[in-house]
Amino acid sequence: MFTGLVQSMGSIRDLSPTETGRRLIVHAPGWSHHPSAGDSISVSGCCLTVAEPPQNGDLAFDVVTETLRRTTLGERAAGDCVNLEHASRADTLLGGHIVQGHIDGVAEVLTVTKGEDWRVRLKPPADLIALIPPKGSIAIEGVSLTIAEVGDDWFEIALIPTTLRETTLGELRAGMRCNLETDILARTVAHWLERTGRS
Questions:
Q1: Same domain (yes/no): 122, 77
Q2: What is the overall mean pLDDT for the chain?
Q3: Rounded to the nearest 5°, which phi and psi values hold at 6?
Q4: Has residue 52 been placed in a domain?
Q5: Is 69 in the same domain as 109?
Q6: Residue 164 maps to which CATH number?
Q7: What are phi and psi of 17, to 5 degrees?
Q8: Is the model's pLDDT at 199 over the cut of 70?
Q9: How many Å apart are CA 154 and CA 145, to the nearest integer?
Q10: Domain extent for 67
Q11: Lateral strand order in the sheet of 8-17
């Protein structure tokens, strides 16, 4: 479990094929957190397990084929930056919202409007738009955000200078794809209504 408050940015050092997917090596020498093998880390929104004791600021993860297929991790290359957050504890200050690290789908960036009101418009998979309410919470690349506006098949987020500076979201451009996780509360309510036939 995470809160969507990015703690550091790392860079991909290597993404090599393995029998079960790929071995991802993230270089994060400036991160004050020192995880152990078996710890959960959110890597641009994807909950991954540290595969071995970190060495010289390098974190190793085994990314299975299913994760590569359902997220943007399979599209990444050496040198790409990623957002990092370690798992929360029961007494963690919940400054963002409850984020599981389970990606629901990949959204496409439609437009980026820069300036005092920095807005990013994204198009999510069609089956997710109902789970994206105005002023609700959403995680983009592992970053907890408030949904600013919603259209028929798109939504917008507003980014503050701190988010632009301390996460990878300042690099978003039209045509890029990014990991999206809807709010667990919205997903739970929608699932219950669907299963019970209530509206």
A1: no
A2: 94
A3: -65, 135
A4: yes
A5: no
A6: 2.40.30.20
A7: -65, 145
A8: no
A9: 15
A10: 8-86
A11: 46-49, 40-43, 81-86, 8-17, 21-27, 58-64
